[in-house]
Amino acid sequence: MTRDISCKNVTRMQLQTRLWIKDALMQLLKMYPFEEVIVKQIVLTAKISRPTFYRNYSSKKEVLDDTITDIMLDYKKNIVQRHVTNLHDLLFYCFKYFETNHDYIAIMVGAHLTGYLADKLTRQFVEGIKNDTQSWRRWQTPLQKQIGVHFVFYGFLNVILYWIATGCEESPETMAQQTIGIIKGLV
């Protein structure tokens, strides 16, 4: 039997339980590498039973994936509400969002999951913009779109991860302006 991951038939208690599990994993990642964390530790930290864990997730990797998906979905929801029409605003709101919501990402970066995080977020981003035709993107062919998406997103994601890893010292406005300066310097 497979579990319902569509969230259509998920109760508030199930959502709360999943949050406890994700929070527990993040707490453990502050102290242990991902490879050393075991389900028993997650269960004890979340104060739930082992069967409850397995009713919600099949593995600790699935918990990590769900956490990353939550970050991407929340970011997307927030950026869509902004009705961004230019690159400066897109960068500013992106930096602003991650300044406010950087906790889990900082934990993953500290736990040396940067590569995994970048790969997961890139895949979700690529999937999310398949049919997006923003006017500021001038990619002519499907191959240019694939290359452009990976080049831009991986590069920008690494800037975000670096910024979070260094404590978000610069303001979102400064980061947006500096990033635009770098982009302009590439052409």
What does the main sheet amount to? Answer: none
Principal-axis shape:
elongated
Relative strand content: under 5%
Helix content estimate? over 70%
The overall pLDDT average reads 86
Description:
- The chain is mainly α and 187 residues long.
- The protein is 70% helix and 0% strand.
- The longest helix has 24 residues, at 142-165.
- It is elongated and about 55 Å long.
Features:
mainly alpha; elongated; 187 residues
Quick overview:
This protein is an all-alpha fold.
List the helices and strands and how they pair.
Blueprint lengths: L11 H18 L9 H8 L3 H7 L3 H22 L5 H14 L2 H8 L3 H15 L13 H24 L6 H15 L1
Helix pairs in contact: 1-2, 1-4, 4-7, 5-9, 7-8
